[in-house]
Design brief:
alpha/beta, D-Maltodextrin-Binding Protein, domain 2, 2 domains, eleven-stranded mixed sheet, 20 helices, globular, Bact_solute-bd_prot1
Length: about 450
């Protein structure tokens, strides 16, 4: 089965690929970035009614640049100034430094009531902005806009992307998080699996049965730090609570998550591809067999190509104890409107253009998109394209037959995705750095959890 490719650098790159497909590899300079971060967006309307919208994003894709040019051509009185941070670096430390600089400068301007008209929120603490009334409620704008038909969008994604009952960031794309299971091996084990609402405790019990009755030694291939990052995202609204205007990170629950993960690895239920496999990409890690692989699914074509064996099935990821049934999704290209913008109407019109079919239809199944389009019509065009072609042709590889049954299963998974797994880069960084001492046996779960709580509370409430 396929090894997991989601290490930290992949997470960063996927987070940064927020507004479209392949990027410009950092070649786009920040056009007037300092002015926008300082909130200096004066003279945005000239004497002839020409409006300039400033749009700030961490990563500027070719798709976004194409969409902007198309929009400006259709609206000659509108100029959209794109600002992007350097999204690449010579090593991981430099990438982190670029992210930190972008987040810090964006926070400084937005929390001061300044900044750009449009903000890409993937890297930023949207919850914090919403609590301080710094973002426009897009739900209100959608309700008032009769030209927008909700049935044309994945409303399950939009409804479950709300903060405090309002939609403050419009996702252009989303991906799915699930488990790909070896259906043949699972069937031979005789262990019954109901993934409709299983918890991680249920998964642990099933894993023990599988290792006793089945042919594989391991149930899931992962690594502790990655798994913790995912489980924190899935538990975010249980871990972080708001009270009297102050956020608090639950150290007890977090300690429980760390211990739960460590116990599964210690008991041999999970295969650590780095420690046990001798390093990611090693021959041992590549060839190990397990019943499940964690999988991020971001396109129809990718899903079919990664259906690595002939008899695999997509399973819902286990849920935290207090979370209901349904699949998991992650948004990309979350665009918000700054409440300080004098051009909210024009900003909304541009967002609407981006999510409409005419703006997304050029993204066919062969483009390297960061996810499924939020526009259901664009998605259905991609689906029809695949089914009509019947095969997928990949360079230097045999043609892959399009499996309609697998596509139907994925379609049901998409419409059933109701749990958002949004991440904040700063919180992820804190957890990654501090949890190493627990997984290496140097500190207790409670000790590490307290340190994480202190640092995250300081960040959330600054």
């Amino acid at each position: 089965m396929k090894k997991i490719g989601w290490i930290w650098i992949c997470l960063i790159l996927c987070l940064s690929a927020c507004s479209g497909a392949q990027g410009n590899k950092g070649e786009m300079a920040m056009k007037g970035a300092t002015a926008a971060q300082d909130g200096n967006t004066n003279e945005s309307v000239d004497s002839k009614g020409h409006v300039k919208l400033v749009f700030s994003t961490f990563y500027l894709s070719n798709h976004m640049q194409t969409a902007v040019k198309k929009y400006e051509k259709l609206h000659p009185n509108i100029e959209i100034e794109l600002q992007a941070a350097p999204s690449e670096g010579k090593d991981l430390d430099e990438v982190y430094a670029n992210i930190e600089k972008f987040v810090t400068s964006s926070n400084t301007s937005i929390l001061a009531g300044k900044g750009p008209d449009l903000i890409e929120l993937d890297m930023l603490p949207a919850d914090k902005y919403v609590s301080r009334h710094l973002l426009v409620n897009l739900s209100d704008m959608m309700e008032k806009d009769s030209s927008l038909q909700k049935k044309d969008y994945f409303t399950n994604i939009l409804d479950n992307s709300k903060i405090g009952g309002g939609l403050y960031g419009m996702p252009l794309y989303f991906s799915l998080a699930g488990l790909i299971g070896d259906e043949d091996a699972l069937g031979k084990s005789g262990v019954k699996i109901d993934d409709s609402s299983w918890t991680w405790s249920d998964f642990t019990d099933i894993a023990k049965q599988l290792t006793q009755k089945g042919e594989y030694k391991n149930v899931l291939i992962s690594e502790p730090h990655y798994m913790l990052s995912e489980m924190v995202a899935e538990n975010y609204h249980q871990l972080v609570t708001e009270g009297t205007g102050k956020a608090n990170f639950d150290s007890v629950r977090f300690a429980g998550l760390m211990q739960q993960i460590k116990t599964m690895f210690d008991d041999g239920l999970l295969y650590d591809m780095v420690t046990d496999g001798g390093g990611r990409g090693s021959e041992a890690a590549r060839n190990v067999k397990a019943y499940f692989n964690e999988e991020t699914i971001s396109s129809l074509r990718g899903y079919l190509l990664n259906n690595f064996t002939e008899h695999t099935k997509l399973y819902t990821k286990p849920h935290p104890q207090d979370v209901g049934a349904g699949g998991y999704f992650k948004n990309f290209g979350m665009i918000g409107i700054n409440t300080s913008s004098p051009h909210k109407k024009e900003a909304w019109d541009f967002i609407k253009f981006l999510i409409e079919d005419e703006a997304q239809s050029y993204t066919d199944v062969y483009d390297q998109s960061p996810g499924f389009p939020i526009n259901r019509i664009a998605y259905e065009k991609q689906l029809k394209q695949l089914k009509d072609e019947g095969t997928i042709h990949e360079a230097d590889l045999p043609a892959v037959k399009v499996d309609n049954a697998s596509l139907d299963q994925l379609d049901a998974y998409i419409t059933g995705a109701v749990h958002s797994t949004e991440k904040q880069s700063k919180i992820d960084e804190i957890i990654s750095n501090e949890s190493k001492s627990f997984f290496s046996g140097q500190k207790s779960a409670d000790n590490v959890a307290k340190q994480v709580q202190n640092k995250i509370n300081l960040y959330l409430n600054e």
